[in-house]
Amino acid sequence: MRLSSSALRRLPPCADHALLAGAAAAAPAPPPARHLFSDPAEVEALRRNLLAWYDRCKRDLPWRALAATEPDADRRGYAVWVSEIMLQQTQVATVIDYYNRWMQKWPTLHALAQASLEEVNELWAGLGYYSRGKRLQEAARKVVSELAGRMPRTAEDLQKLLPGVGRYTAGAIASISYGQATGVVDGNVIRVLCRLRCIGADSSSPAVIDRLWDMANVLVDRSRPGDFNQALMELGATVCVPKAPLCGECPVKQHCQAWRRVERELAFASQKLFGKKTPVPDVEDCGVGDCPLCPPATEPWDSSLGVTNFPRKAAKKPPRVMRTATCVLERRGCHGAPEYLIVQRPSSGLLAGLWEFPSLPLAQDLQEEKEREELAHHLQAWMGRPVAAKGLQFMGEVIHIFSHIHQTYVVYSLHLDGDVTLDPALSPSRWVTEEEFHASAVSTAMKKVLKAHEKQRRKESSPVKTILVLPDLNFGDIPTLSDGNGHFILT
Ligand code: SF4
């Protein structure tokens, strides 16, 4: 049985524990007490300690300021929604600037609903996971056209009515913007909860995730749910970090089973060192055979890892390896500055709607000569005239890691003279200056490609740093350089 957020909201502060116990009793495999928060007094203390720490130490972030001061409920919900979507898979430090520019450009849902996808992609360029921006804009249009511009007010409705809003985002918007007492579970919360309750089973498995949601709903503070959820996430982001958590500074260490276990082991080790007779510490797992939340028997607690024994995840699938040939087509613009041809990607799939240099996915293990031929053939379509494979200059390789793809771009360059007619029947394409390129909706990977291209060009045009010995010119001991054009330079 899953407790609905609205049911939880109607309960007095401690009734949810009794209800959860009832729910657990009805479930086929009730989790052992060690993995639960079943003591109401402890829950109250944890809420108090965590909120007091948050009030003292929270980071000053633009979306927090907006959520705390914006009187218009729809705008408040929108402001939190934008921040939550941007923060998915992206660091706070990176998001701040994007967030400020976004809110300046589209301060309301109505403003965003009127934006074009091109504008959204341009502002999103560099933030990654581009479908997020597109879905945000689609959902804003839906709120304006189908919900009369009014944001849904509960987590259930937000998740049901807004495309791209999942359980976590819905809970975050509802608790932070509308004060709904509903928990949230994101990567930071998973880490903190797994450590607090020594959960060592695969934290990405549905069974564990369900338990963590139950736990988050039990823990969330009834009078300050938004602050509590942000505090839990803030703790995971700044104190209970993945590799070297700052347990000494942690406001909830007294409630942390993983920390207690480490402390007991340390105490036991030091007593043993001084030859004292002490009872064997209670460092066993929860005592329930085949517990679905304890670490698997094949990977027991490792003392050298301390609290970072938790959380654990099943090994990730290795990323797909891809190789793509891409060509920087270059020409002299009317003022002599270089211009580049960029083409638009399809409107669905990876990097949907973004612009890139003409590119062609390659089969693995293709010979270089064959790669060139295929790319030349592909380019002919854009240029409407034959392209000689030999004319393509190899500029280097650029590696870019997407979440699930290890992509290698094999970068070529081709300089064009005269006018090139682009076939309008193909995907949209245009010539851009370097400045226009950077202002366009291009991915970080394409920016890296242009950078590699420019670096190679600079290398080619800089003087060759070769010291030549010219015995017949009698320069004595003075070193002589060539600039690569047959001119010798005395240094
Ligand atoms: Fe995380 Fe350490 Fe705090 Fe436990 S005591 S919650 S492991 S920082």
From TrEMBL:
Record-stated family: Belongs to the Nth/MutY family.
A GO cellular component entry from the record: nucleus
Catalytic reaction(s) noted: Hydrolyzes free adenine bases from 7,8-dihydro-8-oxoguanine:adenine mismatched double-stranded DNA, leaving an apurinic site
Cofactor(s) for this UniProt protein: [4Fe-4S] cluster
Top-rank EC class of the record's enzyme: hydrolase
GO biological process: base-excision repair; mismatch repair
Cofactor: binding details: Binds 1 [4Fe-4S] cluster.
Main localization of the protein described in the UniProt heading: mitochondrion
Oxidoreductase found in the keyword field: no
SMART domains to which the protein is assigned, alphabetical: ENDO3c, FES
Keyword terms of this UniProt record: 4Fe-4S, DNA damage, DNA repair, Glycosidase, Hydrolase, Iron, Iron-sulfur, Metal-binding, Mitochondrion, Nucleus
Subcellular localization: Mitochondrion; Nucleus
Family annotation (InterPro entries): DNA_glycosylase, Endonuclease-III-like_CS2, Endonuclease3_FeS-loop_motif, HhH-GPD_domain, HhH_base_excis_C, HhH_motif, MIG/MutY, MutY_C
Keyword Iron: yes
CDD domains: ENDO3c, NUDIX_DNA_Glycosylase_C-MutY
Record organism: Zosterops borbonicus
All residue ranges annotated as the HhH-GPD domain in the record: 86-238
EC number: 3.2.2.31
Name of the protein described by the UniProt record: Adenine DNA glycosylase
GO molecular function annotations of the record: 4 iron, 4 sulfur cluster binding; 8-oxo-7,8-dihydroguanine DNA N-glycosylase activity; adenine/guanine mispair binding; metal ion binding; oxidized purine DNA binding; purine-specific mismatch base pair DNA N-glycosylase activity
Pfam assignment, any one: NUDIX_4
Protein's job: Involved in oxidative DNA damage repair. Initiates repair of A*oxoG to C*G by removing the inappropriately paired adenine base from the DNA backbone. Possesses both adenine and 2-OH-A DNA glycosylase activities.
